[in-house]
Amino acid sequence: MNKIRTRFAPSPTGFLHIGGVRTALYAWLLAKQNKGDFVIRIEDTDKDREVEGSIEHILKTFKMLGLDYDEGPDKPGPFGPYMQSERLPIYHEWALKLVSKGLAYGDPFSKEEVEGYRIDAKQKKLPFLYRNYRPNKLPAWDKSKPLRFKSNPQKYTWNDIVLGQIQSNENAIDDFILIKSDGYPTYNFAHIVDDYLMQISHVIRSQEFIASVPKFLNLYQALEIEPPILATVPAILGPDGRKKLSKRDNAKDILDYLKEGYLKEALINFMALLGWNDSTEQEIFNVDQLISKFKLSNVQKSPAKFDERRLVWMNGQYIRMTSTTELYALAKSYWPNDSKTFSQDYKMAVLDLIKERLKYLSEIPDLTSFFFVEPKIDPSLITDNKILSKIDNQFLIKLLELSHQRLSKTSFKLEEIKNTLNDLLLETAQKPVVLFSLIRIATTQSPASPSLFETIAILGKDKTLSRIETQIKALKNYE
Length: 479
Ligand code: GLU
Prior knowledge:
With 479 residues, this protein is mainly alpha-helical.
């Protein structure tokens, strides 16, 4: 069998949406699994739609995700160049082959004529097809006009690895433009030439191209080239499961997710599952597992649903699977400014503690700021607390004074803190939701924090005691 070579062929018309990267990921997985090649080809033949910066953005996304490519615009290979705008002579050469075989002609149709033909077809209750109005004697191509393909209408049956057998009739075939009047090829033409010359074995792409496949098959035939294996991946729907995923669904650009501190392994795992599973309930697959388990034939036909909550959950799982040392390295740029003067050991201890609750790395400042700066007293933490707000202020003060007194006698080792506060619970006949919540508020000024004992153990004795004192003073002032 020939080498498996897959490609991702984005048009640089904007930033990469999650669906695009998912499609590319499937092509990448297939190549990796078969020790094949994965190629990035930039399809920049529509200069009007090009958005500046998108090529860099696309390539950066692949680099950041660790989806390496064997050939691409910045990675020369035997089949380059990998930017379609740099391959114009190649398309012209192939176009001329068709012209010389009498299979392409200079576009003779003016806008007005086409309008007239449309009306004519409508009156005849026929679909409008250029080929029905093609002149008998094919017009020559003078390059100021587009070049059109002379199609050969027929029925097709073809196999799509994901969708199975598909049939089409003659109406799907028409004379389409190969080269535009600006000299650039159309997608319909260029991708066929390139996939062939680049020896692409599998073309994996999204649903929107399925209706055009009969046209492509017709052109493959005219060019006398064997079509590659075709696979159509499912659409991705928004969270409501009805409409196609769009900007309004808050699906972010992959680089934005990475900036927010989603781990690349989690993003890859999440994207892989948008339309694929290994026929079990398993949800967590590391990249190596994906490489070995991925099968195009297991890609689902029906649309996938984008659910950001699943991504958040999955990222949390990955954070917990990552060692604290590794996570610390990944989290370097996420610490709040105030943490600068603190030691690595201290920050590692903080990270180890919040790891259980951390959903993405950009939450670190919010979850950890009280470890680095003195938190401001927030009276609402008590007044809005269902249980504490019903307790007499004097009693709250008393509880804090006792806590202060007992804790001040300890060496502040974790075990001692635990025993001391548990003893105090018994002694005062209070529930943890009262006593521990109160100490938590006093020491962190936040309604939730990781385990109280660990939190204050990391904060240390001095800070813990002085924050309790500050809270006592504040409560006295409420009197
Ligand atoms: N340039 C096309 C796009 O960005 C590529 C489609 C394909 O993969 O063939 O949609």
